[in-house]
TrEMBL record:
<protein>
    <submittedName>
        <fullName>ATP synthase CF1 subunit delta</fullName>
    </submittedName>
</protein>
<keyword id="KW-0066">ATP synthesis</keyword>
<dbReference type="InterPro" id="IPR000711">
    <property type="entry name" value="ATPase_OSCP/dsu"/>
</dbReference>
<dbReference type="Pfam" id="PF00213">
    <property type="entry name" value="OSCP"/>
</dbReference>
<keyword id="KW-0375">Hydrogen ion transport</keyword>
<comment type="similarity">
    <text>Belongs to the ATPase delta chain family.</text>
</comment>
<dbReference type="GO" id="GO:0016020">
    <property type="term" value="C:membrane"/>
</dbReference>
<dbReference type="InterPro" id="IPR026015">
    <property type="entry name" value="ATP_synth_OSCP/delta_N_sf"/>
</dbReference>
<keyword id="KW-0406">Ion transport</keyword>
<keyword id="KW-0472">Membrane</keyword>
<keyword id="KW-0934">Plastid</keyword>
<keyword id="KW-0813">Transport</keyword>
<dbReference type="InterPro" id="IPR020781">
    <property type="entry name" value="ATPase_OSCP/d_CS"/>
</dbReference>
<dbReference type="GO" id="GO:0046933">
    <property type="term" value="F:proton-transporting ATP synthase activity, rotational mechanism"/>
</dbReference>
């Protein structure tokens, strides 16, 4: 069994417990928003990730870091959960817990998560049109669009919906042409 799957097995009960508490306290949308913000902050700060994952840094120091960073940015419910992860020495799993929580929360809300990789930013009208098309394709009530700007695509975009990939990028078309030409 890989270490990644072990970490998911350890993180899943924490995500499930947080989801159950968020539902009980009717904090589901706020919790998802707060966790998304935390995830974004973590992905932008390698130093923060290293500090929270470092076993040599004391629990008290980690709690102080989290309280200083998130005291006014997230609700107390989420902050207390982060402190529990620190107490239980599971804070290094925070990204996986957040990922699993959002996955479970979106499943409850019948929300489909779309990963959009594009060479240039979409305007709001283009985003709305894409969301409507995805709703029709997936028969979903809600769609969450996660946009990543990737200049390597040259032009166009790539959409990932679950295991489906729709590649309309120029880089994808060039790869396709190269593949066909190599077949000849």
């Amino acid at each position: 069994m890989s270490s990644q799957s072990i970490m998911y097995k350890v993180a899943t009960p924490y995500a499930e417990a947080l989801l159950e508490l968020a539902k009980a306290y009717k904090m589901l949308p706020n919790t998802a928003k707060d966790l998304s913000n935390i995830s974004m902050i973590l992905s932008n700060s390698i130093d923060l990730q290293k500090s929270l994952s470092n076993p040599l840094i004391s629990i008290i120091a980690k709690k102080n870091i989290l309280e200083q960073l998130f005291k006014d940015q997230v609700n107390d419910f989420v902050l207390n959960f982060l402190l529990v992860l620190v107490d239980r020495r599971r804070i290094f799993l925070l990204n996986i817990v957040i990922e699993k929580y959002l996955e479970l929360a979106y499943r409850i809300e019948s929300t489909v998560v779309i990963n959009l990789f594009t060479a240039s930013a979409f305007n709001e009208m283009q985003q709305d049109a894409l969301i409507e098309k995805i709703k029709a394709m997936t028969n979903s009530q809600q769609v969450k669009l996660v946009i990543t700007i990737d200049p390597n695509l040259i032009g166009g975009f790539v959409i990932k919906v679950g295991s489906k990939v729709i590649d309309t990028s120029l880089a994808g078309k060039l790869k396709q042409m190269s593949f066909y030409l190599n077949q000849i």
